[in-house]
Amino acid sequence: MGVDGKSVAAAARFREQSFAMEDRPSFTAETVALQRAFESARPPGQRLFSDPYAVAFLRPALRVLAAAARVPLLRGPAVGLYDAVAGPGPRPSAVARTRAIDDEVADAMASCGQCVLLGAGFDTRAHRLPALAGCAVLEVDHPATQAAKRAVVDRLELRRGLLTYVPVDFEVDDLASALRGAGFDSAVPAVFVWEGVTNYLTAAAVDTTLATIRELSAPGSTLVVTYVHAGVLDGSAEFPEAERWVHNVQRAGEPWTFGLEPSEVPAFLRARGFELVVDVSTRDADRGRFAALGRRERGSDLYHVAVAEAG
Ligand SMILES: C[S@@+](CC[C@H](N)C(=O)[O-])C[C@H]1O[C@@H](n2cnc3c(N)ncnc32)[C@H](O)[C@@H]1O
């Protein structure tokens, strides 16, 4: 698996920087909220989804940018300014993956009774997806990010029943105990969503978390997980958008530390008790929706969404 050699130097960087992560909410989670706020600012017929709460998670300067995107004449410059800094990949990739995962969750909830959002960040699916209304949702995240989220959810009075917050650091905490203690029922099929997170973890934390998901999965459970191409960690795979993307997350103090070679993903998951059902890059994940709306954005080939079942 391409991760072992490539993750060594990255893991060392991770250890250097993880102290900062303990103290503050995730900036990359806020970045995804901005990307979703931009998408939600588009008129109903021109967007892939609407997340009306995303803007509330932004710091004032980013909220101004998101507000500008709601003004038709300013939308192009505001989003263009963001893309000029972030590069062409991150925003369309996040938009495509959000919509693809929304669809996967809706499909999976036809047969699952609970949903676990792992590394939930400022994901608001618990509040915006009809498929999750009335069913148990457990949001797992690093304590610092989760505290920031809860402050906003409280301010917006977004309380809903059957939503439980589970503070967990995947690197050190016992996820299985935390989920069981929070009411997760391992006799009930669940959909586990692990979006935008594996790339920030050590290989050991990815393995431990997958083992826990496998252990807790009743038959019929589904795992939706994203990963980045392992070749971007050491530059051995060439993607036009990679260099700036990797540089920006590094500068944000949340470097990418883990990736997978797409060709090895079926075996990687099988060795951990999962059967891969589908694996698409975020470039393919929008299923032609951008083009159908006359939009020129494209997701990225380096960022993947995989769906697997516990075997
Ligand atoms: C890019 S954000 C993605 C958030 C969310 N899943 C989404 O797609 O909007 C990365 C998330 O991983 C979480 N994370 C990173 N390292 C973590 C760790 N060691 N333990 C728990 N969560 C972690 C961060 O707190 C953050 O919420």
Structural summary, described in words:
The structure is a single chain. The protein has 311 residues and is an alpha/beta fold. It contains 14 helices and seven strands. Helix 2 (27-40) packs across helix 5. Mean pLDDT is 93; it is low at 1-20. S-adenosylmethionine is lined by residues 26, 28-29, 32, 119-123, 141-142, 145, 168-171, 195-197, 200-201.
Order of helices and strands: HHHHHEHEHEHEHEHHHEHHE
Strand fraction: 5-15%
Strand order of the largest sheet: 3-2-1-4-5-7-6
User: What is the number of strand segments?
Assistant: 7
Provide a count of the helices.
14
Cα distance spanning the termini: 20 Å
Largest sheet at a glance?
7 strands, mixed
Radius of gyration: 18 Å
Low-confidence stretches: 1-20
User: Kindly state the mean pLDDT as a whole number?
Assistant: 93
- Principal-axes shape call: globular
The helix fraction, in percent, is: 40-55%
Structural class: alpha/beta
Bound small molecules, deduplicated: S-adenosylmethionine
